Every structure is written in structure tokens, then in C-alpha cells.
Amino acid sequence: xxxxxxxxxxxxxxxxxxxxxxxxxxxxxxxxxxxxxxxxxxxxxxxxxxxxxxxxxxxxxxxxxxxxxxxxxxxxxxxxxxxxxxxxxxxxxxxxxxxxxxxxxxxxxxxxxxxxxxxxxxxxxxxxxxxxxxxxxxxxxxxxxxxxxxxxxxxxxxxxxxxxxxxxxxxxxxxxxxxxxxxxxxxxxxxxxxxxxxxxxxxxxxxxxxxxxxxxxxxxxxxxxxxxxxxxxxxxxxxxxxxxxxxxxxxxx
Length: 253
Prior knowledge:
Elements (H helix, E strand, L loop, with lengths): L6 H17 L5 E7 L2 H5 L2 E2 L1 E12 L2 E10 L2 E2 L2 H5 L9 E10 H8 L2 H8 L2 E4 L2 E13 L6 E10 L4 E11 L8 E9 L5 H15 L4 E3 L2 E11 L2 E10 L5 H5 L3
Antiparallel strand pairs: 1-3, 2-5, 3-4, 4-6, 6-14, 7-8, 8-9, 9-10, 10-11, 12-13, 13-14
């Protein structure tokens, strides 16, 4: 950390580091810098928190290669820190930079959390509900600015269930460009109906254009996305209602 911390800042920063490290399944490196003073601390006020971490596993199979988080002012419960917890008195806003490797992404796709979310994916095709259940999926980051998807999915229609193998190439949405689908082709199965493709593209458009997403006690929006060869960089703005614990993160819906 570049600036010399005061005693109370060092004490609080170390306590927060210990608490957060215990909530992670694994961590290679984590540093936390909390800006405050003794007078504000007695009232639970913190000017700013800066967190930098590498190799963070927030739960089984969900790993972040690099994380940098910076908050605005925070109101915390000082007693909770002393008791080995970290409780917010009020929600806080944060800017987050996340780096995921290709391996991180593909490991996360096999986690129960991601699978449960994808399993709920349904399409309305001319008034008929079609369910999509993933068999397998892989993401590749072969070049700057390009995403590749390969996998198999079960399409469950009213009177027909069949498997579809696919390979797709896309470019992510950025601050200056919309998301672009470069190519899509079927690699296994009977192919896919035009109506189903149209419904799928509409669903993807709806997801991409969502103003925000919710996860546990956080509301966040992806402000920018950059693809480098072998890694994905996300710039995220988050509204954090409460610091999640392992109990809340791992609990079922």
C-alpha cells in the first residue's frame, strides 16, 4: 500500500482482511486498506475501502484471478468487526475490476450455482415454452475481443426432446460497441428451427440490455467488458447491501 496507514486504520484493515480471508475457500493474496480516523471509527464511519486480491475462490469452482474493489464512504458496525464479522449499517457503492482466466470461466460453468441458473433458462417460441438444459459448455478466449462457445444443450419442447451441439463466436458489449454474434453453427443433432433461433436471440438481447443484475445482497451492472487472449476483464459498478458470508453464499434458493 503506497500511503502510511494510521494505527486505527492498520488495526481495522487487518481485522477486515482476516474476516474476509476466512469467508473465502482459497486465497493467494489479499490486501485491504481502510481509510478512517479514530473519531469516525467510534461512530462506525469509514471514508473508503480499497481491496486488492489474487486467486480468490468465493465458493467451490468459482475463482477470480484478480480483483480490485474501491468503495465510497461506509457505515459499519464496529462491534461486528471485533466479534469477527463485518456488518454494514447502510448499503455501499463500489467500483470493481475483475479478471477471469479462461480456466476460471470454464470451472465456474461446471459449478452448481451456474448450472442452476442456466437450468432455469426458458424460451417462448410462438406461445410454446421450450426449456434448455445444458449438457456441456466451454468458453474459449482465443484472441483479443473475441469469445468462442462450444457445447451441447437439450432442447425440451412439448412433444420432442433432442440434443443440439453448437459452436458460436461473438464479440462482447463494450462502452462503445454493442454485443455482436459473428457466427453460429450446429455441430450435432437435427439443427434448430428459425423460430427458436429468433426467440433465443430475443432472450439474449433482453439479458444483455438488463440495467442491472442481482446476486445475494448485491445489485451490480457491468459497465465494460474487455477480452484479452486467455482472460476476460469486467468493469463492474456494485450496490452492496450487506457483506455476504459463506452461509448465505452457499445456501440454496
